TrEMBL record:
Pfam families: AAA_lid_14 (PF25601), Response_reg (PF00072), Sigma54_activat (PF00158). Residues 3-122 form the Response regulatory domain. It comes from the Bacteria. The keyword Transcription regulation applies. This is Sigma-54-dependent Fis family transcriptional regulator. The keyword Transcription applies.
Length: 410
């Protein structure tokens, strides 16, 4: 049973609230002074606090309640706290809500609204407690991985990324092709780097190629090399990317945009490990660990005749699906703080970052914060500095929007 602490100098208020809460299954305890309330909180088993704003007969400013609030918040930052206030302290109550109070209720209160508020806050508190436990467990798993593997500076906090990283590390040393799928800007190249740094060929070269940007007439020379005179203007031997990656890893990004003729030529070298430079009949061999990436739905591209099925199965021995940023919101703030390199964010800016859908994924987040860092005038990054689209739909009082007795427009 959750224990709720009522801190109020009026015995009638304490008795009425205690009875109301007890009837609805809550255990209520009372304290008549701020000092007594803090002493009771020290026992560490209070789930929620309801506190008055004035405790002396000659005081009506709410300053006593303000001091008590900040004392509680300093020692118990995650403890839900409801303010009981007369209308004269309404402005101060709003200030304290912005500083972290869960809600405020005027005297006399509405029993149904108070109970709904208490129920909502306790449910949210339990959810937050479970999330903290999950985050702590994830942090411990990350620490264990960091002791055994090179995480390549990867920034993440979400369970989805933890599972992906664990799978990537599990297959990193296997000599098989890996296909990384996911939206543009989600971080596919960082996952490729993670695999390379933990592979059996980590001491070898790591060659990156944007396969989708290769025109047909240059694709063969780019991948396999060319001899002097193979095409106009080539006066010396050109080493291809496969040859350059020999003994290491070749990362082919945007593989779904490679032309059909390019796909056919790529398939041959994957099957045999053999190739010829453009303009040469000498067969060469290379040993390359291949990682490819795409934002294209390759099965759909196969059905539409735009991608070779045999090449797909050559590339897709292991597939790693990288979720977009909006599906791993726990990664947003760690990434934001990494990009800002120590510069702080206001509360409104944090809420906006968490609420925005980030269609451009990590790349959009990075560009947004670099721009904000350059243009911000104050010490902190504000909501205005972020310059997010008005359609982002964040809510400045999102925490209060769960309260059924008061609307919070987003």
């Amino acid at each position: 049973m959750d224990t709720i602490l009522i801190i109020d100098d009026n015995p009638a208020v304490c008795e009425a609230l205690s009875l109301l809460l007890a009837v609805h299954g809550f255990n209520a305890e009372t304290a008549a002074t701020p000092i007594a309330g803090l002493q009771r909180l020290a026992r560490q088993d209070i789930a929620l606090v309801i506190q008055d704003m004035n405790f002396s007969r000659d005081q009506s400013s709410g300053e006593e309640g303000r001091q008590l609030f900040y004392a509680i918040r300093e020692q118990y930052p995650d403890l839900p706290l409801i303010l009981l206030t007369a209308w004269t302290e309404l402005e101060m109550a709003v200030e304290l809500v912005k500083a972290g109070a869960a809600d405020y209720l005027g005297k006399p209160w509405d029993d149904a609204k108070l109970l709904a508020t208490v129920t909502n806050l306790l449910e949210l508190s339990e959810l937050s407690r479970r999330q903290r436990q999950q985050q702590q467990a994830l942090a411990e798993r990350r620490q264990q991985l960091a002791k055994r593997f090179d995480l390549s500076g990867l920034i993440y906090q979400s369970d989805a990324m933890q599972r992906l990283v664990e799978t990537a590390l599990q297959v990193a040393r296997a000599d098989v092709p890996i296909l990384i799928t996911g939206a543009n800007g989600a971080g596919k190249e960082k996952i490729a780097e993670l695999i390379q740094h933990n592979s059996a060929v980590k001491s070898g070269p790591f060659i990156r190629v944007n396969a989708g940007a290769l025109p047909d007439e240059l694709m063969e020379a780019e991948l396999f090399g060319a001899e002097p005179g193979a095409y106009t203007g080539l006066n010396k031997t050109r080493i291809g990317r496969f040859e350059a990656a020999d003994g290491g890893t070749l990362f082919l990004d945007e593989i779904g945009n490679l032309s059909l003729s390019g796909q056919m030529k790529l398939l041959r070298v994957l099957q045999t490990g053999e190739f010829e430079r453009l303009g040469s009949s000498q067969t060469r061999r290379c040993r390359v660990r291949l990682i490819s990436a795409t934002n294209t739905d390759l099965p759909q591209a196969i059905r539409s005749g735009e991608f070779r099925e045999d090449l797909y199965y050559r590339l897709n021995v292991i597939e790693l699906q990288l979720p977009p940023l909006h599906q791993r919101p726990d990664d947003i703030l760690p990434l934001a703080r990494h990009f800002l390199r120590g510069r702080a964010l206001t509360t409104e800016a944090v809420r906006a970052l968490e609420a925005y859908s980030w269609p451009g994924n990590v790349r959009e987040l990075q560009n947004t914060l670099i721009r904000a860092d350059l243009l911000a005038q104050g010490e902190q990054i504000t909501l205005t500095d972020l310059g997010l689209p008005a359609a982002a739909g964040w809510c400045h009082v999102r925490r209060l929007s769960l309260m059924p007795h008061r609307s919070a427009k987003c």
